[in-house]
Structures are given as C-alpha cells and as structure tokens.
Amino acid sequence: MYIHLNRPDEAEGILLALLREDERSFQKAYFDLAEIYLQRNEDTRAAEMLRKARPLDPGRADYQLGLIEMRRKQYAGAIPLFRSAAATKPELAPYALTQQGIAEYHLKNFKEAKTTIQKVLTMKLTPEETAQLRQLLQAIEGAARAAKPWYLSASLGVQYDDNVLLNPSGQVRLAPGTRNDKDEDDVGFLTSIYGRYNVVEKDPWKLGVAYNNYSLTYVDHTDLSVLGFRPSIYAQWDKAPVSAYMEYVYSHYLVDNESKVDVHSIFPRVAMMHGKRWRTEAFGGLEWRLYEDQNPDSRHYFLGLTEMFFLMDGRAHVRGGYLFRYEDFVPREVGNVLSNEAMLGFQAPVWKNKWFLDVAGRYIWREFDHDPAISRKKDRCDDEQNLSVVLYGQLTPCLQLSLIYQHTWNDSNIWSYQSFDPYDFQRAVFTCMLTFSY
Questions:
Q1: Which of 61, 84, 169, 416 is most buried, by CB atoms within 10 Å?
Q2: 195 lies in a domain?
Q3: Number of domains the chain contains
Q4: Residue 4 pLDDT > 70
Q5: Are residues 78 and 158 in the same domain?
Q6: Are residues 36 and 173 in the same domain?
Q7: Distance between CA 26 and CA 22 in Å, rounded?
Q8: 137 and 179 share a domain?
Q9: What pTM value is reported for the model?
C-alpha cells in the first residue's frame, strides 16, 4: 500500500519487519523490496532481493534479474535469464524473448536476434505489439547489413524524359537558322551496380574501396547514352554524435560508346546529431572534369549545409538547406557559372512504415560570366525551380521499389534574334527503379 502511495521508505521498513518476523510466509515481500530498490537505482540490492524471491516464482525473478542486467548493459548475462524466464513462465515468454532479442542485438549477434524476434511474432500478441516487433526486426536487419564489411546493390530502371536534349546548366550552341530543339522526349533504361568493402575496421574508423558501374541507354537518342565506371576509396569516422566521411572518386564516362570525360572528385561530409530531433550536415565537393572532345575542361566546386528535424521516432523529417556551386571553365574565354540553391523538403511514412513519400523543392539562381557564344550584349542569368517527388518502399527485406518524378522550370534572361529562348523551358523526368541490396 505504501509503495502505491509513493512512500517507499515506510514501505521498506514494514516489509523488512514482516520478513524478520516470518520470512517463509512473507517471501513475496522480496519482490516489493526489489521494486523499491530499483526505483532508487540500487541494482545490487534489488538483485539480492530477487534471488531470495526466486524459489517462490522463478520465472518472474529471472525476468526482473534480466532487466537489471540489461540496465547494467551486461547483455551476455541477461540472455540466459530471459531464456529461463520464457521457459518457466509461459505468460512472460513474449516479453522475455523480446528482451533476449534486444540483448542479442546489442551483442551484434544479429542472426540470433532475428531468429528470436521471429519466434515472438508467432505468439499471441496485440496489433500494437506486433507492429513494434516488426519495427525492431527491421532495425535488426538494417544493423546486420550495416555491420558487414561489404555491401552490394544492383539497380534496374526505366526513365521517361520529355525534354532530353535540354539541360539548364548546359551552354547550348545554336547556329543561325537552326531550330530550337524543345519537346524532344525519349525513354531510357538505367542500370547500376555498386559494391564496397571496408578494408580496415577499427572503431571509430573505416577505410575501404568501392566501385560503381552506371549506364543510361536511350531508345531514340542513342548519341546521348552514357556508360560510367567509378572506382573510389573512402575513409569514415563515426563516434556519436558526430560522423565524418571523405571519398575520392575517379570517374570515366563514355557517351555513345566513345570516351567522353574523366572526372576526379573529392567529397567531404560531416554530420552531427543534436539530441534525438536535430541533425546538421555539412558537405562539399571538388571536381576536375577533363573532356576528350571540344567541350571545355572545368573545375567544379560546391559547398552545402542541410538541417533536419525528425518526427515520429525518426521515421519522418523536415529538412532545409543551402548549396553554393561554382564551375570554372578552361579556357578563360568560356564563361564561368555561379549558382545559389535553397532547398526545403520532407519525408514521411504513408503506409505501415514500409512505404515513404519524400518531397523536395529547390530554388536556384544561376549566373554566367560573359560568354560571346551565348550573347554579345548580356550576361546570362537563370531563375530555376525544381520539384522532386519520390515514393519508395520495401517489397522484400532486400528489394526496394522507387517511383520518382522530377520537374524543372528554367527561365533565362537571354533571347536570340530569332525570337525564342533556348534556355526557357520545362523538363519532366519519370523514373521507376528496382534496387536489390545485399
């Protein structure tokens, strides 16, 4: 009674007096004393009381002793206690085995943890308990994949582009008398194979190598088909709440089966969690693009910052960010490009925490240095808006389907003497992608 009235000191005195008077008759009082000591964070005394109470109810005592071991982060010692509690007291089995699976997860025994939780899912549970266990199972499967020293994925997709010839950052060259190539649509097929391997894993460091093979093959505009080879090396440092990543990538691209460009890239990234809600991410890049045709070589620099606010236990978030880009063309006669980009987006589950919707909008202000090939009188300036909508979800633990819609509205200040603007256009791209990850 005194325990429920939040008067534990008085309750402790009464219970100890009863036990001194007749321990056998009042042996159940050891469970109440254990509860009092747990409230005071006196784990050692609580465990002592539970051991004395064990002959009366072994299953309950072992379950509570296991919880004490979990609180102490003594996961190896907790597992046999939970296993014993599940065998001794069947009504506690779902809860004891769930805790056993969590302990195995903390010990990185992911295969055993998955088997244990799957066993619990066959038991009689409430819909809420089933949903929580399925989320736990997904977390275990994700941790198991992340813990492997290697990762492999393959993607296959189809893409419809309603304006494949135009790109807002491209410097379109139209000779006098030529038409404006708008509304040129096409279908392309996408394939991507990516793999990485951590050569060195010494907490908090990971050093590894990766490779990506990428292709985009168009049906009609075969002269725009791209094949890319991208080996890389990376270093990762991860110690909560901060993680840092650096990657060097060498890329070689073929266009229409002819060597087009070599790209040397360095991508640094730093992220920090602020509590459970906020995440700040700073990222950048340096790229040297060396073309093998008449296109000018360029040095591309970018630096960005993204802030994320998490909702629904991390399953949803709102984000905003800023990105600065500068592209320096060689030779100097070609105008350089400077752009500022603001982004706002959100992600949220739309069905059973398996399917997610991600929506992002971007506003870009792009300025070009004076380039006579574009205009003899004006410097080009673009005002651009982008919309990206992605619906994705897991078909199986290893197979994901993504449906992507991207739309670009580009408005430029340059007009040609033929009364059209090659830089004023819209472009929509629809993509359906299947990705297998192992």
A1: 61
A2: yes
A3: 2
A4: no
A5: no
A6: no
A7: 6
A8: no
A9: 0.75
